[in-house]
Amino acid sequence: xxxxxxxxxxxxxxxxxxxxxxxxxxxxxxxxxxxxxxxxxxxxxxxxxxxxxxxxxxxxxxxxxxxxxxxxxxxxxxxxxxxxxxxxxxxxxxxxxxxxxxxxxxxxxxxxxxxxxxxxxxxxxxxxxxxxxxxxxxxxxxxxxxxxxxxxxxxxxxxxxxxxxxxxxxxxxxxxxxxxxxxxxxxxxxxxxxxxxxxxxxxxxxxxxxxxxxxxxxxxxxxxxxxxxxxxxxxxxxxxxxxxxxxxxxxxxxxxxxxxxxxxxxxxxxxxxxxxxxxxxxxxxxxxxxxxxxxxxxxxxxxxxxxxxxxxxxxxxxxxxxx
Length: 323
Fold this sequence. Notes:
The chain is mainly alpha-helical.
């Protein structure tokens, strides 16, 4: 294997470490939870098992989406397939809501109207403890990677500005899983303490509501990415600075960007060039500007520069400069 290939493989593993860690944890936890639910008859444990299966499926879908998103551009998709990852992220959010939350609430309802007496809860507590440790490890990995990516930005700001959904999706999933484990443990304990197995069903409903809330947040963020979001304002400002340094450009009318993938940006620039500039001089100038922009900002995968008079651009503009 060449050094370049080894470097690419290492980079790919690093990129997916959050998903691989979460997948490994959830598969093991799901089996343990289902075994515990079968032995003890706990509704919240069964719900937690379903939750772990859904999370495992979600990680598989995100890994699949990442692989599909890396396909090169072709005639049918000239800007590449990067935004396919956003589609699968939206599918994951729907699955969390429809399967994870839906099954949890339904199972809790059934356990309330037809309660089953619980057996010795020790198995539940052991499994919940192991699950909490594994989920905590997965959450720590996701949190570490997320903190590295967000830099000095606040939590919510980093989530809103992130263009790479797998990182914050796994973080949300693991956080919801940890809260769900606490709720499940409390449901099992209080059910035995008061001798009412229906409480375990209420705990299952609470877990479902937590998953529904997480799904709504993730769907909202994924929808914005799927529709199309602008690049980071710092990237747009850097483009403007590079253009303003050019004496041949009288004014920059607007800079419009859209993410075509987590690490790729399409930028459309309207600029008023000096009237003394000939067509023969403009062509190599535009090529030089594009080369300079790509060198300074490698994420600019596609650059379109349109010479346009300032007055005409103002009259014809119907969108924000930083759109």
